[in-house]
Amino acid sequence: MRDRTIRVVLVALVLVFLQPTIPVESAANFTLVELGTLGGNYSEAIAVNDHVQVVGNSEMAGGEYHAFFWENGVMTDLGIPGHSSSAADINERGQVLLQELGHSFIWENGVMTDLGAFSAVDINDLGQVVGSQNSHAVLWDNGNITDLGTLGGPESWAIRINERSQVIGSRVTANREQHAFFWENGVMTDLGTFGGWYSAAWDLNNQGQVVGDTNTDNTGSEQHAFLWENGVMTDLGTFGGSGSWAYDINDRGQVIGGFFDTAGENHVFLWENGVMTQVDTTGRFQYSGAVDINDLGQVVGNTTKAYGPLESFVWQSGAITVLVHGYLRDINNQGTAAVGILTRENNHVNVAALWLAK
User: Fold this and answer.
1) How many CA atoms lie less than 13 Å away from 321 in the CB half-sphere?
2) Each residue of 163-175: pLDDT tens digit?
3) CATH number for position 30
4) What is the pairing mode between strands 266-272 and 255-260?
5) Reduced to 3 states, what is the DSSP secondary structure of residue 27?
6) Is the bond leading into 167 cis (omega within 30 degrees of zero)?
7) For residues 44 and 37, what is the distance between their CA atoms, to the nearest angstrom?
8) What strands lie across the sheet with 119-123, from one edge to the other?
């Protein structure tokens, strides 16, 4: 249900050299639903929950962009006429987190609640929201905004909140280094680095496991993916190359990320129980990037040949299902629906799309 970019940060496509070793399954396993637009030529779906409620953003006829909520064939405009808005996420209660007019809002069943003047990026199923305000990470809960602090530095920002109200993000230290943090019950913990000046936390699961990346020395020449749990930061490795990064983890502790191999090419990995496995696809593609993993271990991503059209895929247990030209953003935990952007080849109009598993 989360947009793994964070959220509202957009996930960058990880370029991966592909080998013709993984079987391709039929796209007939999925039904494509074009969600349309709110009057303009572009729309994007960014998140879907297990009730197949979708949120995203659409261009209006007047050129501004509005957040939308889609359910059972009906797209609802969540914006204010004449102003732009942006959806960030949706939880399992159908609460939509969005930004508008410099404020964050929760939309639920037609009712818009103003959370205040801060930048919100994530919402959990309790309706708790995290983001940043006045250069500090904050937590919004039932009308109250809590400053999570900075541990003495000038700045911090929150990235994620799980169902245990644990929060992750990053902070700037007093000597201007960037460090990942973990916050729980009023206590902010600096996760440190592997010897350098930088670390960043990108996701956490409901067991309190955190993934991200950190550099290994102050030159910043090499970064490694990490898994942090109960005060211990574990190096996930690099496959012998010059760097790796982790950006998503499910409740089974499976991690997805990317790495540079010895030739300097980018690849996608799946890490589980101490084993890092390269996720390759078929020989029909040259580059690929994963953007999300659900609790079934299904990975969604996007792939292309050099200068070729973008296509989407779902990977599970070594098999890839190729969908259509477009860009996937999210898959729900039940594996029943994935969302993203569909490019119509004839007129190059990009529209929000939903893929339903049969």
Assistant:
1) 20
2) 999 999 999 999 9
3) 2.130.10.150
4) antiparallel
5) helix
6) no
7) 9
8) 119-123, 129-133, 136-141, 144-149
Residue with tokens 């309190």: 208
| Residue 353, in any domain of the structure | no
Tracing tokens 């009730």 back to the chain, one arrives at 51
pLDDT digits (tens, 9 = 90+) for 223-252: 999 999 999 999 999 888 888 999 999 999
Distance between CA atoms of residues 191 and 180, nearest Å: 5
Burial class (CB in 10 A: 0-12, 13-18, 19+), 315: buried
For the cut 80, the answer to whether the pLDDT of residue 11 exceeds it is: no
More confident call, 261 vs 154 = 154
> How far apart are the C-alpha atoms of 282 and 264, rounded to whole Å?
20
How many Å apart are CA 238 and CA 245, to the nearest integer? 9
Specify the long-range contacts of residues 101-110, CB closer than 8 Å, at least 24 apart.
104/129, 104/131, 104/140, 107/67, 107/69, 107/78
DSSP 153: S
Read off the pTM: 0.90
Instruction: Tell me what pLDDT residue 301 has.
Output: 82
Give me the number of domains the chain comprises: 1
What residues contact residue 76 under an 8 Å CB cut-off, 6+ apart?
68, 69, 70
92 within domain boundaries: no
Q: Which residue is it, tokens 């247990």?
A: 317
Considering only CA atoms, which of 82, 64, 77, 84 is closest in space to residue 112? 77
User: Is residue 129 in a domain?
Assistant: yes
Are 66 and 76 a contacting pair, CB within 8 Å?
Answer: no
- pLDDT for 346: 57
Task: Flag whether 84 is in a domain.
Answer: no
